[in-house]
Amino acid sequence: MSLLIGKKAPSFTAKAVQRETVIEGFSLDQYLGKKHVVFFFYPKDFTFVCPTELHRFQEELAEFEKRDVAVVGCSTDSEFSHWAWLNTPREKGGIQGVSYPLVADINKTISLAYDVLAGEETVDENGNFAVEGEMVAYRGLFLIDRDGIVRHQVVNDMPLGRSIRECLRVVDALQHFEQHGEVCPMDWQKGDKGMVADHDGVSDYLGGK
Questions:
Q1: Sign of the dihedral through C-alpha 115, 16, 29, 140
Q2: What angle do CA 81, 38, 178 make, to 5 degrees?
Q3: What's 10's DSSP letter?
Q4: Which has fewest Cβ within 10 Å: 27, 28, 63, 127?
Q5: Spatial distance between the Cα atoms of 102 and 55, rounded to a whole number of angstroms
Q6: Which helix (H) or strand (E) holds 196?
Q7: Could you tell me which residues come within 8 angstroms of residue 161 by beta carbon, excluding any fewer than 6 positions away?
Q8: pLDDT given at position 2
Q9: Which of 16, 56, 22 is nearest to 139 (CA)?
């Protein structure tokens, strides 16, 4: 698993679906210099854990927008599958009402670039290709700053849903550091004290509660 922390987020252009619209040339580059981005991968449309995550991101979308953060989802499904899922009511397993973009990584190049693609291609001595496991994305999540740098990443195995509270907490921690230059200790929450190293190398608590 590649560590992208401190590096430029891999750039891509792909089809995406947002509400009723298929976007032909979607790219995260549109947010450079403007917004932080939470870019998350999920395994499949029309599954079980995935809609719980997509609905929770929608339910908390106003909290991300208050922080000037764009939320973007991605899976290896096609734009047609995304569109159908977005038009399926929640009570029937769909994600109707989700309003943020869903990227279609049908060629799996984006999942590969972010190193969240499960499964593995193999070639035997006769040149025959085979695939071990499903070629779908793990539950990867990347927090990208306005300069396009990855500042946080977490990758869960497919059975393990993520925490929206932790995602927002890390957004708050990054923005606190950017605004105040103070680092955030273990279990830091918005409004808590930050820390700064003095000239003797000793960390002191500053501000907050």
A1: negative
A2: 170
A3: P
A4: 127
A5: 13
A6: strand 194-197
A7: 49, 52, 53, 139
A8: 80
A9: 56
Check if 167 is active-site.
no
* pTM, entire model: 0.90
Residue type at position 138:
Y
Per-residue pLDDT at 208: 46
pLDDT in tens, 28-73: 999 999 999 999 999 999 999 999 999 999 999 999 999 999 999 9
Average pLDDT over residues 192-209: 62
- Higher pLDDT among residues 148 and 132, named by residue: 148
Q: What does the alpha-carbon distance between residue 66 and residue 9 come to, in Å, rounded to a whole number?
A: 23
Last residue of a domain, one of 140, 161, 182: 161
Residue 14: helix, strand or coil by DSSP?
A: strand
* pLDDT band for position 23 (cuts 50, 70, 90): very high
Spatial contact of 189 and 172, defined as CB atoms under 8 Å apart: yes
Q: E-strand spans in 56-164?
A: 69-75, 102-104, 120-123, 129-132, 139-144, 150-156
Which pLDDT value is given to residue 123?
74
Q: What is the CATH number of the domain that holds 88?
A: 3.40.30.10
List the catalytic residue out of 50, 74, 167, 184: 50
The domain of 169 spans 163-209
Q: Are residues 94 and 104 in the same domain?
A: yes
